[in-house]
Structure prediction request, 197 residues.
Amino acid sequence: MDAAPYATGGGGTVLEHRYGAVLLASLLTRDPVTELGDDATPTSVHFQASAVSPVDDLVVVGRTPDGGERRVSIGVRRAPALVASDDASARLLTSYLRIVTASWEELRAGRWRLCLAVASPNTPVRQLGALAEIARASVDEAQFPRRGRTPQTNEPGRPGTATPYRCARYRCAGRGRRAQCRHWRADMAPAVVTVDA
Prediction:
């Protein structure tokens, strides 16, 4: 008797394939992919695209009305912990930061977007979504850390800095990359979407 994928730890791969199938359907029907932008027409979907993006689970490329190219790099995780003590979370957030530091101008111009797709919007994932909204609303780099520490982004009943923000700062500082962490803000914050598992 075969075990269910989620019972054996393969649920993330199943989720990635299901979400990828939805993206491929959009490609075939030429329907917009929200994560790419409603004004862009998808032209390709890449699975495990480490050759083109550090966030490599899925990469969708599309054409904008002005003939330009836009891409979105999507990390797919079933229920990421997003805490500083979790090495998988640190690797995930570091992959986003690598795009930000290496492709700053493309991100700033809106030609490259970032997304995290999850099956389970646990507390840290909800916090990351809230932080992404705060980052997009921040008018400058200095405002994001202040606004990212507001009570509404903290885990209920726990004072202090929101977990995903602390995770990104802690891990980058621990690896001597504090300068890179400063860029994790504004329009570069990943969008968070929930995918049916």
Remarks:
- Helices lie at 11-29, 87-102, 104-108, 123-137, 143-147, 163-174, 178-181.
- The chain has one domain: 11-194.
